Structures are given as structure tokens and as C-alpha cells.
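Field log, afternoon session.

UNIT: design team B
ACTIVITY: writing a sequence onto a fixed backbone
BACKBONE:
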């Protein structure tokens, strides 16, 4: 039976009327007090590619030998690219060759990005972006022979969308309650990073496992601002009469929602009233802060992702009004499950997120926060190297981007296996066995965020199974 404590926890995370913020129990409990280094301001922005992005078609081979092997393995997709208006964007002469500072690490192998990712190529060249190769969920290091033998434990329910989304966000299959993003912010809160804990974890994509916590709550924002309560939204205004009548009616409804049940004997009814009141007040506070904040001159694309990243930029710009020193943001972008029509779909998605990320980076430079904000990409899995005609099927490891002034950019971290089948990191059909774990990826970000080694170990249980805890792609981590 649901008890009152469970109800309050659930209501705080999902919101009876809206997403809510609320004071966590961390400070009162004194967990990990003063362990995280939380001077100044830092923010992490997780951009999640829902559906599983094809890393092979995102970071492409460029040296002639690797390119020829790639072309031989994917004739159907390359024919689809060749049939596009304007010709193929996957011929070697059209690719955007990368010149990473650590090119000597790859034994003559060279890499490139497709033309649609030219804004990210510019950030990579300038040192504000890096690539991490073949990262994904692992329990411990694994190669093909061990995979075939089943001698090493592996994450549960591989190749399942829901389970691997959960694994990326919370390190467990679907049903896990707490994400590593929330564990990072909880450690920061426990060390006194935020005077107002309400706006520590912010999602622009609904409730997410990445920010789910036992102690703190995730606050939901819409790309246009604070969420509205049903019945108080502008699109209901035509039912409320004249402007003056609308204003008066809205005020009365707000007062009703805030006080609903407050005089009732039933404790659940009182709790609902408290939740409603807090939601309305928090939404009004952040909206007023956004409205009064400095107008950004950076022009964002009008895509959904562009508008969402613009809202994150605006929120970071009012960090002083929100009284926060550490924040974690989450935004999801769908459409990456490219079993078919990959050529058209992925090119469009590449264009959208490259332009949006570049605008976000420019906005951080504009407000002098570029060194203090790091955006990183993730996705439940990559795709198979073996094509299925005009698309690709579910894979495992993939390649991702890290963007920001704190990134040791113009470099590729980890490794990118050869563009062939049946190598030592091929789980079958070219599904990459990750060479770098989510925990290593997360720990490197967490160290920069300010977490201590003990906090990282607590937040990332499998980290102890990997020798290298810090991948080195962030500058100025907590030592």
C-alpha cells in the first residue's frame, strides 16, 4: 500500500500539477558534507540521442584503406547517399577531415565528420570539442572472445531501447530509480553548492531517470519557459472572457490550487495543497527571473533542440537569481532509431544538433561561462556496422562529443575500432563492444564537476572494475 512518505516522494519527482523543486534532505542528513569541491559555478548538460545514433556514420574513416573498407561494407547506404539531390555527402572528398592533436595514437588511421556536422568540426578544430570513441555500458573490460564464451558479466538486456536508455542514465536496466546525474548534483548540494536546491536538476524532456533521486527533485522547464498548470495556460484564456476577467479568474484559480485542501483533516489532501502551492510559486519565480534576465544576442536555430538549448542558456545566465553554484541539465532528442531511411533521417538530425550545439557554445562564450559549462552527448547504443539495406540495426558502443571551454579539445579519446567486421571488439554484425565504459566517461565529467574520488566511487559502482578512472578530456578536475 502506498504510504504518505512514498506519495510525497513520488509527487515531488513527477509533480501533481507541474514539476516541482524542493529542499532536499541532504544538508540536514550531512551526507558527504564538504567533500565535493563546489567553489564558483559549473554545469553539466546531457544531450541524449534517443533511438541509438549510428556512430559509424557520424565519425567516419578518412585514410584511404579504412575508407575503402567502409565503402565495401556499406554499399547500400552509400548508394542511397549518392542518389540524394546534390550528390553524395559520403564520398571521401566531401568528408571533413579531422586533425586531432593526438593523431599519432591511431597508427595511421584518420577520421572525418560528415558535412552536416561542420559546426562541430569548427568547435573541434578550435579546441572547444573532443570526441570519445566507442563508449557504452560495461560491467568490466570485455573483448570478443570473452563475449563469445560468456565468461565476463555484461549489462542486462543489451540492444533493448528502454533498458539501455536506463542503463546509460542510471547504470541499471529499466526500473532503476536513481540516475548518475542526480547523484552528482546530490553530492554538490551536500557540500553547500546551492542556496536554493529547487533549480539544481533541470530537465527539458520530462521526468528522466538521469535526474531521478532519493533526496532531490528534478525541475521541469519547457523550451518557452516555466511550465503552466492545466486551467491556467494561455490557450484556456478564450474560455475566461475579457483580459481583465482572464487575469482575475487566473488569480482566483491560482489561489484555489495553492490552498486546495489546506484546511482538511486528511494528510494526503494537505500534502497536495503544499505541492500545488510550491509548484505555482517555483514556476512564477523562475519565469520572473527569466523575464528579467539579460537578453542573449546569440541567435539559436528555431528547431526544437535549438529552442531547448536556448532555454538552458537563459537559465544558466540567471544562476545568480536562482542561487545555484552547480546545475545538471537534461535534454533528449528523438529520431535516431534508423532501421530505414537512415540517409535522410540522420543527415537532418546531424544538421539540427550541430547547429544547436554551436549556438549554445556561442551563447556560453557571450555570457563568459564557456569554461564552466560542459555539454556531452549520449545515446542508448550505437548501430550495427552491417547495414540492412537503407538503414542499420541496434548496436552497442558508439562515439560521442564533449563540448565546452573546459574540454581538452581537438583530440579523440579512447579508441575507434577498424571499420571492418569480426575484429576483437565486434559482438557480431559489427556491433561494437565498448572499449570505454559509461562509468569512465561519467567519472571524468564528475571529477571536473568537483566530486571526490569517494563520491565518484559511490555514484558509479562499476568504476572500480576499470583501471583508468579519468579519461583526461577535461581540464581542471578536482584532484
Amino acid at each position: 500500500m502506498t504510504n504518505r512518505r512514498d506519495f510525497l516522494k513520488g509527487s515531488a519527482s513527477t509533480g501533481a500539477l507541474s514539476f516541482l523543486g524542493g529542499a532536499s534532505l541532504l544538508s540536514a542528513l550531512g551526507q558527504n558534507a564538504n567533500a565535493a569541491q563546489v567553489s564558483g559555478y559549473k554545469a553539466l548538460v546531457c544531450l541524449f540521442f534517443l533511438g541509438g545514433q549510428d556512430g559509424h556514420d557520424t565519425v567516419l574513416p578518412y585514410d584511404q584503406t579504412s575508407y575503402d573498407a567502409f565503402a565495401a561494407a556499406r554499399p547500400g547506404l552509400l548508394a542511397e547517399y549518392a542518389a540524394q539531390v546534390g550528390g553524395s555527402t559520403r564520398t571521401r572528398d566531401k568528408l571533413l577531415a579531422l586533425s586531432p592533436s593526438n593523431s599519432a595514437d591511431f597508427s595511421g588511421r584518420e577520421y572525418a565528420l560528415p558535412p552536416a556536422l561542420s559546426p562541430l568540426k569548427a568547435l573541434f578544430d578550435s579546441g572547444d570539442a573532443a570526441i570519445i570513441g566507442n563508449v557504452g555500458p560495461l560491467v568490466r573490460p570485455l573483448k570478443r572472445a570473452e563475449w563469445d564464451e560468456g565468461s565476463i558479466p555484461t549489462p542486462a538486456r543489451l540492444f533493448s531501447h528502454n533498458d539501455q536508455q536506463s542503463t546509460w542514465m542510471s547504470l541499471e536496466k529499466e526500473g532503476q530509480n536513481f540516475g548518475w546525474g542526480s547523484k552528482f548534483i546530490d553530492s554538490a548540494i551536500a557540500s553547500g553548492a546551492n542556496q536554493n536546491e529547487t533549480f539544481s536538476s533541470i530537465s527539458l524532456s520530462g521526468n528522466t531517470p538521469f535526474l531521478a533521486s532519493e533526496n532531490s527533485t528534478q525541475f521541469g522547464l519547457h523550451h518557452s519557459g516555466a511550465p503552466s498548470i492545466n486551467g491556467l495556460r494561455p490557450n484556456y484564456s478564450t474560455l475566461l472572457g475579457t483580459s481583465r476577467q482572464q487575469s482575475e479568474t487566473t488569480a482566483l484559480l491560482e489561489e484555489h490550487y495553492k490552498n486546495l485542501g489546506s484546511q482538511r483533516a486528511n494528510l494526503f489532501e494537505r500534502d497536495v495543497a503544499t505541492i500545488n502551492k510550491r509548484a505555482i510559486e517555483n514556476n512564477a519565480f523562475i519565469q520572473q527571473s527569466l523575464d528579467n534576465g539579460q537578453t542573449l544576442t546569440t541567435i539559436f536555430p528555431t528547431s526544437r533542440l535549438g529552442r531547448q538549448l536556448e532555454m538552458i542558456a537563459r537559465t544558466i545566465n540567471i544562476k545568480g537569481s536562482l542561487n545555484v553554484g552547480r546545475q545538471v541539465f537534461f535534454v533528449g532528442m528523438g529520431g535516431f532509431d534508423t532501421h530505414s531511411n537512415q540517409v535522410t533521417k540522420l543527415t537532418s538530425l546531424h544538421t539540427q544538433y550541430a547547429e544547436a550545439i554551436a549556438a549554445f557554445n556561442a551563447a556560453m562564450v557571450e555570457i563568459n561561462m564557456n569554461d564552466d559549462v560542459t555539454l556531452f552527448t549520449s545515446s542508448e547504443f550505437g548501430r550495427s556496422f552491417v547495414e540492412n539495406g537503407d538503414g542499420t540495426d541496434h548496436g552497442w558502443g558508439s562515439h560521442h562529443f564533449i563540448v565546452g571551454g573546459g574540454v581538452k579539445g581537438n583530440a579523440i579519446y579512447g579508441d575507434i575500432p577498424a571499420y571492418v567486421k569480426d575484429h576483437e571488439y565486434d559482438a557480431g554484425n559489427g556491433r561494437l563492444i565498448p572499449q570505454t565504459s559509461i562509468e569512465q566517461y561519467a567519472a571524468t565529467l564528475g571529477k571536473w564537476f568537483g566530486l571526490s574520488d569517494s563520491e565518484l566511487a559511490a555514484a558509479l559502482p562499476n568504476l572500480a572494475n576499470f583501471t583508468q578512472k579519468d579519461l583526461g578530456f577535461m581540464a581542471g578536475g578536482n584532484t
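LOG NOTE: The mean pLDDT is 88.
NEXT ACTIVITY: expression trials, pending approval
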